[in-house]
Write a structure and sequence with these properties.
An eight-stranded mixed beta sheet has the order 1-2-4-3-5-6-7-8, sandwiched between helices. β7 (203-208), α9 and β8 (230-234) form a beta-alpha-beta unit. α5 (145-152) crosses α7 (162-173). The radius of gyration is 17 Å and the shape is globular. It is of the alpha/beta class. It has helices at 39-42, 66-79, 93-105, 123-139, 145-152, 155-160, 162-173, 177-189, 216-224, 241-244, 246-256; strands at 2-6, 9-17, 20-25, 46-52, 87-91, 112-115, 203-208, 230-234.
Length: 263
């Protein structure tokens, strides 16, 4: 575990393995522990960097827009001296940040994997985020845990995996309510659609077939806006395939990312 100092403050990152660099960015509803089930497999041939986004873990809070977060991640890549062939994968909020990173700092990365994220939320998708922000501001994180879990997982998965649900609730409970509400509102304001044409990175866009938070038909529109992007569904899965369907997630990501062992 390392706290990397940047001009924006510290960024909490955890490296694992060796080889070609891969940066993992988590969703709004999790922290970097969301990748625990897949990081060891990814690290067999790569140096995997699990990042706590600003305001999560020991990472300094800051920024009110998705673009702000992308600039902070870019500063961390610079501080870590990661090469230009670094690949970046983001899920949910982390996917929005990864897409903005490719728009604003595309020279700092090679391949891009965007998992269950959009160019922007439609109006119907913004109100639940505003409601989450209001709830945590008024009542604290505990009042939002059940809603958050339902945004992450289909009901069948929730009923079948109470242990995983409990772990996710406890991780989210530790989040600062002010930071969480700010990020909820940042997601209602972002619109990357006009900028997607600037992304030159090779991209894979994944969507959970059962995801109601970022529905697959809308995720496909994100893929359509990025030149040459591949789109794939993760069958029978909700918003976080690295937790819910780790084998399918690893198969899709492994087929797209080049593997290069340290030499």
């Amino acid at each position: 575990m390392a706290l990397v100092e940047t001009r924006y403050g510290g960024m909490d990152v955890e490296p694992l393995g060796s080889g070609r660099d891969l940066v993992l960015l988590h969703s709004l509803l999790t922290d970097r522990s969301a990748f625990d089930a897949v990081a060891p497999a990814l690290a067999r041939e790569r140096r995997v960097w699990r990042v706590n986004l600003p305001g999560y873990g020991r990472s300094a809070p800051g920024g009110t827009t998705i673009e702000d977060l992308a600039d902070r991640v870019a500063a961390a890549l610079e501080a870590l001296r990661l090469p230009g062939d670094t690949d970046v994968l983001g899920n949910g909020l982390g996917g929005f940040v990864a897409a903005a990173l490719a728009v604003r700092h595309g020279h700092r990365l090679d391949r891009l994997v965007l998992v269950d994220c959009l160019a922007s939320f439609p109006e119907a998708g913004k109100e639940p985020l505003r409601a989450l922000a209001r709830t945590v501001r008024a009542q604290g994180m505990g009042a939002a845990l059940d809603t958050a879990v339902r945004r992450m997982f289909p009901q069948g998965y929730i009923e079948a995996h109470p242990d995983v649900v409990g772990e996710r609730k406890e991780a989210l409970r530790r989040m600062d309510p002010g930071t969480f509400s700010t990020l909820c509102l940042a997601l209602t304001q972002v619109d990357l659609a006009p900028e997607l044409g600037r992304i030159q990175n090779r991209a894979l866009v994944l969507a959970g077939e059962l995801d109601q938070t970022t529905p697959p038909q809308l995720v496909r529109r994100l893929a359509d806006g990025i030149a040459g992007a591949r789109f794939a569904l993760v069958p029978g899965c909700g918003h976080c395939p690295q937790i819910e369907k780790p084998e399918a997630f690893l198969a899709a990501v492994g087929a797209f990312l080049p593997a290069a062992k340290a030499g």
